Amino acid sequence: MPTGTSPELQIVNITNREHLSGIFAAVSRKNKKQVLENLPVTGYAAEGRAMARVDGKVIFISGAVPGDVADVLVTKNKKDWAEGRALRIHHFSEERTTPFCKHFGVCGGCKWQMLPYEKQLAYKQQEAEQNLRRIGKADLPAITPIAGSEMIRHYRNKLEFTFSNKRYLLPGELEEGVSAGENALGFHAPGIFDKVINIDECWLMDEVNNRIRNTIRSFALEQGYTFYDIRQHTGWLRNIIIRNCTTGELMVNICLNHEAEEDRKKLLDHLLQQVPEITTLLYTINPKWNDSIYDLTPEVYAGKGYAIETLEDFRFKISPKSFFQTNTRQAEKLYSITREFAGLTGTEIVYDLYCGTGSIGIFLSKQAKKVIGVEVIEEAIADAKENAALNNIVHAEFFAGDVIKICNDEFFATHGRPDVIITDPPRAGMHEKLVQKLLDIAAPRIVYVSCNTATQARDLGLLSEKYRVEKIQPVDMFPHTHHIECVVLLERNED
To answer: Catalytic annotation on 451?
Structure first.
């Protein structure tokens, strides 16, 4: 076992896998599954997976790191490649370190805790470079080293926990015959929609999230409140959503299956008494089968009903249903890079596509002549307008609708053609029609912010018809995960 690896880690890696191994051995005997024993893990592939080779065939492995020697269950087997997951680690890589969370190996939230942070950054840099160079086929400059996060624990400003009357049982508990019919409050078990891991301590947000969650769970059990059953659509308690802002404001929203006024007041009053740091407490009655609250109305129980967050000296109003970058301090770094790449001098008209609640456009507004934000979600546009007003920004306008339909000659005649376009699409990247629209608009400069370098690379290849890539800056927004943000500056080719 390498330096920095605890016996507890070995127990997690072996004991948990032994349980699975027994299951899959039976499957293997039926010639449906294959276990590769004592497989040397040689490299990192992508999306948090490691890689090995068997007779020239590439095996993509979850739950292992380069340098491990592992037994690997093959879950998908193709002619030239296969996928699998580590069942047992025989030899631990020297790259490993001791995970800091007691739930590591069970909870799927921070899968890279066993890697030192500098190794995480190195692998993310590798993935960004491989995706951008191999997929897009466009000429690229040198890629700037990834901007790491100053905080690698307690970095999130939002967490959501789920109630369930079916607690996810650990492998040892299964062997002991423990019943799954226990209440739990925590995260969904990876790949299992109806069972929840009971979380005692979570390192994603500061300590207050543990006090809120554990206070509610203890009181609910003491009072005999029912936890939600996702299969039967029964039970009272459904979800907790926590937002903790750098301003010190703390907003909590408790989602309930149905109204039970006396119990609700008792629960909420108890929470306020035990966690006085809460500045806004809400509840949402959700009688639907799904957990989405975007079509529901959260009710204010205490406080002003929203929280205020800051990026630099800009203030943002965050309502219970607002989207906001979940790593506030790293969002400042991401937006600062975006602003730097935009190269604004005060004379430019900036179009912010997929603008959401307007955070990027507002962050750039001091250096721009005008900001035009476009977003398909009407509620987000309402928040963007409110945030602009909150910051006394009068030269920013926000419009709800499809960019492809909105950005026509009439719109440009009214608002001006863009000198700089900021685009921050979802993981799927930009629709091909939008890429064509950007080529038609032909703004001098585009800054492309992405949370998926694979789809970003695809879009850069399409944009190379009129644009060249000038700068590339990966950014780590989510330590201990494989997710990567990346900012790319494109300049229009000279005619």
So the answer is: yes
